[in-house]
């Protein structure tokens, strides 16, 4: 890497979590992106990019009939799709100590590009690893296990309280990716983890799928 013998450096995850002798063994997954920096808080000179490759989760097959179920019951799936998008914000803001802010905007200004549905919140933010996990089709927060940087690792369903408060509304929903592609043709998620200075952006399009 061109590091001089008298230089100091750190290795971190994309969430600026320093890799040490104590937590090195936790890096059990192939493909974890790491930064080689002069310090944990070093400013990145350029935006970094990584392509996400994955095999579809088995739930793609076993739960692929959800839309047919809604159609057979004569229900409009649009509210379920919007509920999925809101659920991400409910989950992100569930630990807020102050005000929980969730906004839904319908954008039709041609100067800003194609029409869009924007869901904006003041939640904890997602790391690049968590955005990667979200991108994996039908990998729900109930089946993610052992992720080095996942808030949903070892998820336990909360005590019975209104589902609108505990971000559990997607348990019977259609899945975030299905919801996005039911409403539109692409998704862009922009997130800044509360403990990080970096902003992470994920772009998915139906064309890429």
UniProtKB/TrEMBL annotation:
InterPro entries: HATPase_C_sf, SMCHD1
CDD domains linked: HATPase_SMCHD1-like
Biological processes annotated in GO: double-strand break repair
Protein's recorded name: SMHD1 protein
Organism: Bombycilla garrulus
């Amino acid at each position: 890497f061109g590091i001089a013998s008298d230089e100091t450096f750190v290795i971190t995850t994309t969430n600026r979590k320093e890799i040490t002798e104590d937590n090195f063994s936790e890096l059990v997954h192939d493909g974890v992106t790491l930064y080689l920096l002069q310090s944990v808080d070093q400013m990145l000179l350029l935006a970094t990019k990584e392509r996400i490759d994955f095999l579809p989760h088995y739930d793609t097959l076993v739960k692929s009939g959800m839309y047919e179920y809604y159609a057979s019951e004569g229900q409009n799936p649009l509210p379920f799709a919007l509920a999925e998008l809101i659920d991400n914000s409910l989950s992100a803001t569930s630990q807020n100590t102050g005000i929980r802010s969730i906004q839904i905007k319908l954008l039709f200004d041609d100067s800003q590009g194609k029409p869009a549905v924007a869901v904006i919140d003041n939640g904890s933010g997602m790391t690049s690893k968590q955005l990667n996990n979200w991108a994996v089709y039908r990998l729900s927060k109930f089946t993610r296990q052992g992720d080095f940087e996942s808030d949903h690792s070892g998820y336990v369903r909360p005590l019975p309280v209104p589902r609108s408060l505990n971000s559990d509304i997607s348990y019977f929903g259609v899945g975030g990716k299905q919801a996005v592609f039911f409403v539109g043709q692409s998704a862009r998620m922009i997130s800044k983890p509360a403990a990080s200075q970096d902003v992470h952006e994920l772009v998915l399009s139906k064309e890429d799928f």
